[in-house]
Amino acid sequence: MYVDSHCHLSFPELSERLPQIRAEMAAAGVDRALCICTTLEEFDTVHRLATTYDNFWASAGVHPDNEGVREPTVDDLLELASRPRVVAIGETGLDYYRLNGRSIADMEWQRERFRVHIRASRRSGKPLVIHTRSASQDTLAVLREEGRGEVGGVFHCFTETMEVARSALDLGFLISFSGILTFKNAEDLRAVARYVPLDRCLIETDSPYLSPVPYRGKTNTPAYVPFVAKQIAALKGVEPEEVALATSRNFEELFGVPHSGGTR
Ligand SMILES: [Zn+2]
Ligand SMILES: [Zn+2]
User: Fold this and answer.
1) What residues form DSSP beta bridges with 92?
2) How far is the CA of 26 from the centre of ligand 1 (A)?
3) What is the distance in A from the centroid of ligand 2 to the CA of 21?
4) Which ligand has an atom closest to residue 156 CA?
5) For each of the chain's 264 residues, which pLDDT tens digit applies?
6) Which of 43, 131, 217, 259 reaches 20 to 30 Å from 65, CA-CA?
7) How far apart are the CA of 155 and the centre of ligand 1, in A?
8) Which ligand does the CA of 159 lie closest to?
9) Ligand 2 centroid to 62 CA: how many Å?
10) How far apart (Å, rounded) are the C-alpha atoms in residues 169 and 81?
11) Complete edge-to-edge strand list for the sheet that includes strand 174-177
């Protein structure tokens, strides 16, 4: 059985056909998913998924790309993180991909928001779900400075270099691979996936985005996460079942989620 460690089931593309998506997950052997929060405004919707279905969990956080939304305080995040079935802080991090004419210095608000999430993680003991794009050096620097070696978590939807992967692993973080790993032009990323030990890997869809091959360009759903596992298995020369088992165990350990029944 597979776990999707990062999906956005609260987004309308998916939430509007949840029964169908849940049926497809079950048929594909995907037994659990972590529903990721991207704004405080969205939290209740995300959280309801986790309290309604016993194989969904939720995170609490504000995505670095979201502007014009409520800015979280450490106390806001601690309160949400204390609710039942909330197992992570995020997604959070830095994204300098769309600066829209601003300089990196102008993005201090993003770094401050990230620090708030790291403080909430330190105080709650809940792991961070890190989003980093075109900002890996600052992401690592802020994590080192603010985390003081007291936080862990996952670099989600990893697309960075081997060096960044090594640094993230050194900081105690896991690396999560998405459908991007199956894209034709992702040879460098496949080298990273060969390098990251299986006991430090997670798999995810980041659905509704980034459908893996052979569904590239279509709406992604958690049911497609086995394609990511199969790609990792091929790269490492192991059976997909081994990747399913390892990434499920890593998920359970990182987020404090109990073993599911099933075949384990
Ligand atoms: Zn992200
Ligand atoms: Zn996401």
Assistant:
1) 130
2) 25
3) 18
4) 1
5) 999 999 999 999 999 999 999 999 999 999 999 999 999 999 999 999 999 999 999 999 999 999 999 999 999 999 999 999 999 999 999 999 999 999 999 999 999 999 999 999 999 999 999 999 999 999 999 999 999 999 999 999 999 999 999 999 999 999 999 999 999 999 999 999 999 999 999 999 999 999 999 999 999 999 999 999 999 999 999 999 999 999 999 999 999 999 875 443
6) 217
7) 9
8) 1
9) 10
10) 25
11) 2-7, 30-35, 56-60, 86-95, 128-133, 153-155, 174-177, 201-203
